Amino acid sequence: MARGGVNAPVHPAAAKVAVAPLGDPAAWDGYVAVHPSATPFHSRAWCEAIARATGHGCHPLAARDASGAIVGLLPLHHIRSPLFGQALVASGFAVDGGLLANSDTAAETLAGAAVTLAGTLRAPSVELRGGVLPGGPGWQREDGVYAGFARDLADDDEAELLAIPRKQRAEVRKALASNLTVTVGTDAKERRDHYRVYAESVRNLGTPVFPKTLFDAVLDVFGEDADILTVRHAETPVASVLSLYWRGTVMPYWGGGTFAARGLRANELMYYALMNHARAKGCSRFDFGRSKVGSGPWSYKKNWGFEPQPLVYARWLAPGERPRDTNPNSTKYRLQVDLWKRLPLWAANRIGPLIARGLG
């Protein structure tokens, strides 16, 4: 067993563990609420929202000790796609949500149960994003691909500005001096504007957009713990981000900008405004999310003064199987990415969700 995450108190009966599907909502919520390593992607809210919005089945597994107490959790989504194949993923459409356990025994037992479930569902692989890394037969570590970026927020708006490295701070100051405006909310207009901006942003990158139902479902289940911040130029939305709030940390999760955003420095204003908005909501930490090592977003986050922290994932493969390839930067998809960038936005928005639903 590798990597941290098994740091909740070990139950006296934890040595004897059994795994079964978790069908008790209150037990699920209760375990996530008290485990110190839990993320929003372990929550019932996230898992059920993904299932409802995408149609991918949710299969939460719970490890219980001899007394019946939950000592481990693994929320799995069965992702199926005619283009990308299928896999059990913890958690779907997430950057975390892997093994959550009170002991190595509970974590290894859950990992074994996930492999058994994969066989039952005829899924050739299991993908764990974050959490404890299992070490049993067939499991492989995947590192050197992604890095995470997070740091504490400063005490006030001015201190936050001064915490940004000089060159990037100058860009933020220029954005603050412009005629850009910022709105925050979750109403129908904010959701519509966010989706328009995000859809254009990912089309420009050559990747298909997720279905709007996914964003709506997450906003609906998270309530006050999720919102949209949008930067506008002459009332026109040019940059927008949907963020999650979890245990004092703000997580800008789905964000982007239009072609006009770069020249307007709208993204600079967006993230600085989000830092200040999050502090006003009681947050003390900013999680800039993950990026592929060496990519443009990876460099951009470093420019803000965030230090990359390596992320290590785990994957189990059935004998003779290869990992599914969902990386848009893969040489396999180079031609498709170039073609996608040239699609009219209306066409990309119509076709994209049908493809992106299978990325998981």
TrEMBL record:
Gene3D superfamilies: 3.40.630.30. InterPro entries: Acyl_CoA_acyltransferase (IPR016181), BioF2-like_GNAT_dom (IPR038740), PEP-CTERM_FemAB-rel (IPR017469), PG_Glycine_Bridge_Synth (IPR050644). Residues 169-301 form the BioF2-like acetyltransferase domain. Pfam families: Acetyltransf_6 (PF13480). PANTHER family: LIPID II:GLYCINE GLYCYLTRANSFERASE (PTHR36174:SF1). This is FemAB-related protein, PEP-CTERM system-associated.
